[in-house]
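SEQUENCE, STRUCTURE TOKENS:
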Amino acid sequence: MTEEDFLKSYNPKKYDNFAISTDILILSISSTDQNNYRKLSNKSYSVLLIKRKNHPFKDKWCLPGGFVRVDEDLEDAPKRILENETNLKNIYLEQLYTYGDVNRDPRMRIISTSYMALIDKNRLNEKLPENASWFKIKKIEDKDTVTIILDNDKEMLSFDIKKTLKEKTTDRYKFSIVKNDSLAFDHPLVILAGLERLKGKVTYTDVVFNMMPEYFTLGELQQVYEVILDKELLDPAFRRIIADKVIATDKYKTGGGHRPSRLFKYNKK
């Protein structure tokens, strides 16, 4: 049979139908108010959520997302959806994971390819829609369970995820939601996956600088690394991580009761 004959005889109705969607995890680390003016402003880990206007999960919070169009490349879908749902564009995006649990969506069989977006929200010029909100992230790990608490100063959300070792040789885990009354779909899994991905990449890539302003002090940069890694870093360890990644400028940060601090910028090499 020739290729042409095969295509003529091909009947797509023989196969089950399903839809492809994409969900975007938008993460930011930004400054929060510090009562003691002699100390650096605290850094806050945040995720952008959208409150759903329609069923299913009407009035529940979720990640920005939507269906991939038939005539659309997969990589173009999250860019379009980001701009339509959040007014954000031209920001860092990387593919995260594909989620295909049979019952992940009550409407039909929907497979979702998730993406992680990184941004410095202090530099945002775009106005967010009314149904969008930044939530601060707090992660608590206890043996085989991860609890994540999200707070936007008006509402608090939380969910629990169980970690089960899948492959000991590769340290791979299977994650399952054990408690979730707050978020739509399986988006708790996407949030945790993004946090783990960023934590794993931050020490050996330059990905963190997508979340930084153009100019920053080393103290501010160290806080960002500590937030992502969820631990304090000794100065020598931090200096090793950022070696060759930053360039000193002739600018200084002044005011706020601090001694002037030299400002650095990302070394794009």
Notes: Residues 56 and 106 are 7 Å apart (CA to CA). The two ends are 54 Å apart (CA to CA). The chain has a mean pLDDT of 90. The first strand starts at residue 19 and ends at 32.
